[in-house]
Amino acid sequence: MTVTRFAPSPTGYIHVGNLRTALFNYLIARKSGGQFILRIDDTDPERSKEEYVDAIKRDLEWLGLTWDRVERQSARLDRYAAAADKLREMGRFYEAWETPTELDLKRKKLLNMGKPPVYDRAALDLSEDEKSALRAERGDGVWRFKLDQERINWNDGILGDISIDAASVSDPVLIRADGQVLYTIASVVDDTEMGVTHVVRGNDHVTNTATQIQMITALGNIPPEFAHHSLLTGPQGESLSKRLGTLALKDLREQGVEPEALLSLMARLGSSQPVELRMTLDEIADGFDLNQFGSAPTKFDVQDLFPLTAKKLHNLPFEDVKAQITEIGVPADKAELFWKVCRENITVRGDLAGWWTLFSEGAEPLIAEEDREFISQAVALLPEGPFDADTWGNWTKAVKEATGRKGKGLFMPLRKALTGQERGPEMADVLQLLQVIKAK
User: Fold this and answer.
1) DSSP one-letter code for 273
2) What are phi and psi of 6, to 5 degrees?
3) Which residues of 300-317 are buried (b: 16+ CB within 10 A; e: fewer)?
4) Helices 259-266 + 305-314 axis angle, to 10
5) How do residues 189-203 score in pLDDT, each as one tens digit?
6) Dist. CA 12–CA 1, nearest whole Å
């Protein structure tokens, strides 16, 4: 059975970059009838907040990305300790005491020599007396996994065949000096013990994957299948790293982005398939193919979400928006007409309130000086209500005959005088709604 996972850290809100990873893993699981695990990476007690755990769940629920079970890494510290003990017994885990300053100096020296800035494994040469002295002076050290310095190969679900020379990679730190278990070992233990079969994540994790494959193998397990998607950039190719805080899902939701618009874009962005609005996750899953994605950085423009959002709203039946229309004050008996008038002239649901204000309270007329006499003549020709679907056509025909105006010179001044806007719904519909409100 296919098992995937999404493992966010509850140190902030989910942003569009996180969503891409969550969605890909979700779709792989759902398409194959497998399991999707929500795994909360909360091994950092200082930065992990329960409010962010709640926010992560709320964002995923808003999108419909339901999980089969929730796991908390903070509840599995004993499993990570057991794995660490096993690696120690195997001679694949060692303690090191270099300070950040010392490590930085070593890196700079290697770079100046034209060599890769890889940890030199000096800690492996320490005698027991030297270790005791360092422990007394500096306290506990960090624990590093000793890599076998050979090539690590795998077939990546997106990038194809990957081969990394472990000699060009530093032995990864798995446990900090303060005892905090880091992602690298926690993820290895969880993926194997939870039966994860497929891992999709950003291509900034490629080196992590190489080291994790060695760790999984060292612990006597078979690595899952890995795939690394491209990272998102801004619309001009600029880094999104400093802007991700403004692209949190909660912020997009507050801006009125519809979940189907976000999911439809993220499921195709960076692939060879065109972006098309899909109204259900089943439809999105049917068209999802990991093989269609490339490795090049993928441009993301938040503005692309709004045409998709508008397209969804324009096709919604009245019953789907009835409650919201009533909430903004539209009388129940006028609500369906209001939706008919406004539906194709909104981008987000929040735009409805502005239209209701216009119809219920009126708008400041926009009348050019040269049109004042024309508008006065037109208003004098406006028939008594009630207005119906034919009133606008009959009225403008009478105004045309009386004033000689036609085309844009006829219709635009009337629209601006009645609505205060240059564009909007069909005026035949607007006129009926204005009369309905007037007669309320």
Assistant:
1) S
2) -120, 125
3) bebeebbebbbbbbeeee
4) 130
5) 999 999 999 999 999
6) 32
